[in-house]
Specification:
Cytochrome p450, alpha+beta, 21 helices, six-stranded mixed beta sheet, globular, 15 strands, three-stranded antiparallel beta sheet, about 45% helix, binds protoporphyrin IX containing FE, metal-binding
Length: about 650
């Protein structure tokens, strides 16, 4: 056994190439001391948008021509002098003049010093431009080079390669300015261009008036009663998943839990968004295959160096593009059928549409939107549904994957989760009230999302000039807000690489979000474009983790390939997350009765455990109350601090 930085034992077998906090001898870790160990060879210029999938993770820079590591170069002050070159060059002249005994030289030196100060002031307002060894950055997931460059160039810098350039932002105050205070000055830019083929004018890529209208229409669909009913469904899906895992356990097989979570999340989001049972946990069919083809294409395009699919004829000639067109057709046909079915049901049920409308026959978001009388084209509806499918699938699956990985590397923390789950749930069904009781499990997810934010980078484009401490970001700049850097910065976190779910304070304290941490912690973004599925996703993750922890103990399969990261829209493993699974004897107790929570009495009156929770402006005033916000931090925070 080795000991992690936070004093928690980690197994020696924990293959730690994924930036996790153990002191196991790792090849590459985003920590100063680890950089020297990487010896990968540089073969091409820094591939910012290069396809990363399938390449082993290496968080380090190769030693430069001068055989210096980045750490040594940072320590040497190479990147430190952000002053004026003119001022630096004229410094010796000034010194020489100052030593002139006649007085004339001294007067000139004084004058030169004044001009030097002006030059220095001007230089301070210029954005640092990443230079030099950028070409030496190896084939790593994109957020890792950005982390290294952040350490070299600081909280805002420009990254140029060829005709393209990006502004990389890694400061909470700047992130707040872009996402919240000055959000009106920014669009989704590149993201809209990349995702157009799959999401069209869905909520994630949409901007301006379309975004406003669609957000107002969709957010009310994720109301309290809906989320409460979804918790029930999460439990059923997770149980179904457990039954599948039992088979693997019996056969003594290790299981790729990344794949498992991807399927679980697909089954859940299909039911939640359009009441479609993919049942991908037990079988594959052409619709599932088509969905995965489209999802993989979205990831492929977000990391491809050039938009080759836009070349004339590409969609007909290139096999992967042809497959994508066919897959889109299958998905669109399926969605059209579901839309038609839902319209028919709405006509038949003739239920009055009330504020927290929830159809028993079909509680999905699609049904809500149709029942609300939302007059939109089928194309827009499809765009919205696809957006939620993509947004709610990959993200949650990735959060669960990396959190389970962290737990496997920190058995003592996994023990604490199991203990809590046994106490709260025993072997009974999970309910919405339990979300307030599973506090440590919630913290574990919070910490999992800090160490592995999904997505690790947020993308924006400046619609007009904006200023950051005197530095101008010009109109049309493409901006990367590095959530990874914010979450891993030692300026904002003690021992930032350590997996320490207790770091967020007492368990009955607030649930961390961007507001409680002043934009240092952004698992769901912030401001008016904050995730609308934050509460849904957090509950889904808690339920899945609780159900698994109650039944099994997980450890990394001894013969598994090393766990390493690769970039997609979210962080994937390079070779899967293979786990050995040991069944636990589920305690026969019924856990705490759900009504034990003070909230649940209220909940039973109002059908929602969140009913009594005051609304807290967690996102710059764009709150769910006005149809624009989302509330996980606020509602759970208030819930956690219950009497
Ligand atoms: C753990 C799971 C999830 C994570 C980590 C996550 C994260 C995020 C983040 C960081 C953003 C902001 C993106 C930006 O500012 O550019 C976002 C936006 C969004 N998310 Fe999520 N999300 C999750 C689950 C979900 C689910 C389950 C849904 C749907 C039910 C969803 C729907 C959306 C939508 C529609 C947006 C765009 C909102 C807008 O631009 O107005 N997300 N998500």
């Amino acid at each position: 056994m080795l000991t992690s930085r936070n004093g928690i034992a980690a197994p020696t077998g924990c293959n730690n190439q994924a930036g996790i906090p153990t002191q196991a001898p790792v090849a590459c870790q985003p920590k100063a001391s680890a950089y020297q160990k990487c010896t990968r060879t540089l073969t091409r210029p820094f591939p910012l948008a290069h396809k990363q999938r399938g390449t082993p993770v290496c968080h380090a820079l190769k030693p430069s021509n001068r055989q210096k590591t980045l750490d040594e170069r940072i320590l040497s002050g190479e990147f430190g002098d952000k002053g004026s070159t003119k001022e630096r060059l004229t410094r010796p002249v000034r010194k020489f003049l100052a030593s002139d005994p006649t007085g004339l030289g001294r007067a000139l030196a004084l004058q030169l010093a004044r001009i030097g100060r002006v030059w220095k002031g001007e230089a301070a307002k210029k954005m640092p431009v990443a230079r030099g060894d950028i070409r030496e950055i190896v084939d790593a997931p994109v957020f890792i080079p950005l982390y290294n460059l952040y350490r070299a160039y600081g909280k805002i810098f420009k990254l140029s390669f060829g005709p393209k350039s990006f502004v990389v932002v890694s400061d909470p105050a700047y992130a707040k300015q872009i996402l919240s205070t000055n959000s009106i000055k920014y669009s989704k830019g590149l993201l809209s261009e990349i995702l157009d083929f799959v999401m069209g004018t869905g909520l994630i890529p949409a901007d301006g008036e379309i975004w406003k209208v669609r957000r107002r229409a969709i957010v009310p669909a994720l109301h309290k009663k809906y989320v409460a009913s979804m918790v029930d469904m999460f439990g059923d899906c997770a149980l179904h998943g457990c039954n599948n895992l039992d088979k693997a356990v019996k056969e003594g097989r290790s299981v790729n839990m990344e794949n498992y979570f991807s399927r679980l999340a697909l089954d859940i989001i299909g039911k939640a968004v359009f009441n479609y049972d993919f049942d991908s946990l037990t079988h594959d069919d052409p619709v599932i295959e088509a969905v995965y083809t489209v999802l993989r294409e979205a990831e492929h395009r977000s990391t491809a160096p050039i938009a080759y699919w836009e070349f004339p004829g590409a969609k007909q000639i290139i096999p992967r593009q042809r497959d994508c067109v066919q897959a889109l057709q299958i998905v669109n046909n399926t969605l059209d059928e579901l839309i038609a079915k839902s319209k028919k049901l709405v006509e038949e049920e003739e239920e009055e549409f009330v504020e927290e409308f929830l159809s028993e026959a079909d509680p999905s978001i699609l049904h809500f939107l149709i029942a609300s009388g939302d007059q939109i084209s089928s194309k827009q509806l499809r765009d919205d549904l696809m957006t939620m499918l993509v947004a709610g699938h990959e993200t949650t699956a990735a959060v669960l994957t990396w959190t389970l990985y962290l737990l496997a590397c920190h058995p003592q923390i996994a023990d604490r989760v199991r203990q809590e789950v046994d106490e709260v749930l025993g072997d009974r069904k999970v309910t919405i009230e339990d979300m307030r009781e599973l506090r440590f499990t919630t913290r574990v997810i919070n910490e999992g999302m800090r160490l592995y934010p999904q997505p690790p980078v947020l993308i924006r484009r400046a619609l007009e000039d904006d200023e950051f401490d005197g530095i101008t970001v010009p109109k049309n700049s493409d901006i990367f807000i590095s959530v990874w850097n914010l979450h891993r910065s030692d300026k904002h976190w003690d021992d930032p690489d350590a997996f320490n779910p207790d770091r967020f304070g007492p368990l009955d304290g607030v649930i961390p979000n961007e507001v409680t941490t002043n934009f240092t912690y952004l698992p769901f973004g912030g401001g008016k474009r904050k995730c609308i599925g934050d509460q849904f996703a957090l509950f889904e993750s808690i339920v899945a983790l609780a159900m698994l922890s109650r039944r099994y103990e997980f450890s990394l399969a001894p013969d598994a390939p090393p766990v390493a990261m690769t970039t997609g829209a979210t962080i994937h493993t390079t070779n899967g997350l293979y786990m050995s699974i040991t069944p636990r004897k589920v305690p026969p107790s019924q856990g705490r009765p759900p009504a034990a929570s003070s909230a649940s009495t209220e909940a039973s009156k109002s059908s929602s455990a969140h009913a009594q929770v005051p609304a807290v402006a967690s996102n710059g005033g764009m709150h769910r109350a006005n149809g624009n916000g989302s509330t996980v931090g606020a509602e759970l925070a208030a819930g956690a601090a219950r009497p």
